[in-house]
Amino acid sequence: MHARVGESILQLWERSGLPSLFVVGTGKNVGKTVALRAIYRACVSSGVSPGVASIGRDGEAIDIAEAGAKPRLWLEPGTILATARDVLPRSPASELLELSPLQTAAGTLAFARVRSGAYYELIGPPSASAIRSVTQKLVRAAGHALVDGAVDRVAALAGGGDAIVVSCGAAAAATIGEAVDDARALVVRLSTPRFEGEERVTIEGALTAEVAAQLIRARDRRAIVVRDPTQIALSGRAALHAFEHLKIRCERPLRVIAATVASIGPRSSFEPSAFARAVADATGLPTFDVYAAERAA
User: Fold this and answer.
1) pLDDT tens digits, residue range 185-227?
2) Domain limits, the chain
3) For residue range 93-142, what is the model confidence (pLDDT) as tens digits?
4) CATH tag, 3-186+254-295
5) pTM for this predicted structure
6) C-alpha angle with apex 191: 190 to 193, nearest 5 degrees?
7) 276: Cα within 13 Å, side-chain hemisphere
8) Are 229 and 254 in contact, with CB atoms under 8 Å apart?
9) Largest pairwise CA distance in the chain
């Protein structure tokens, strides 16, 4: 059902020429894993078997925090994955390739190769530098890496040559307008343009809401330059307000290639076509409904 979405995003990823792809959500339960699963299946169908990993915890049957059902992640033989050793399925067996000195919330990180198709749980290391190390190792081993991300850990994108897909959904917002604002703000933030040599103010560390407010009050017209977009500690309407009033730039830009939407959440739901169109209009990105398997008009 999700094949068309996966194939379309895979084509965008291939055109980017980047070896790794992160799927990052505006919140929990917004379809990240469903999107990653669709991309993974498209990769396998096309003869590409990317290494897979997670910034947090994905692929479990039940959400540990909320006790709700979660989408499972089926991996095909030959796939290399990085996860906590203790959650590797005992049957069918996986081929253990390497035990890493890195630790996850569930113990030692392991690199393994799938021997027989099965459902796998992905648990990654907590630090940004560790995720970068894992991603680079997967790229070396498999040629490509596909990573399930988290909005509160976008620091893992720093310094990397990654394609990015932004996922948003009804589970993380009360209204379509709020969900669209969150998606647009995250895309605007991650798509911060490169600094091109104008008069500048260099931000050492994070561009916080307090610093942005001071610069806005001062009507500063210089380029406000951060190292990379992950140093912009703003979200939602606060981020949109800052980008509207300040010329925010970065030295190491990132590459957002698509957005996905999930119109149904545990407490609210949106009209699917209207939601997808609104996100496409607000972000300017190819936007896909991962459940209806359609691209926004």
Assistant:
1) 999 999 999 999 889 999 999 999 999 999 999 999 999 999 9
2) 3-186+254-295, 192-250
3) 799 999 999 999 999 999 999 999 999 999 999 888 899 999 999 999 99
4) 3.40.50
5) 0.91
6) 125
7) 20
8) yes
9) 62
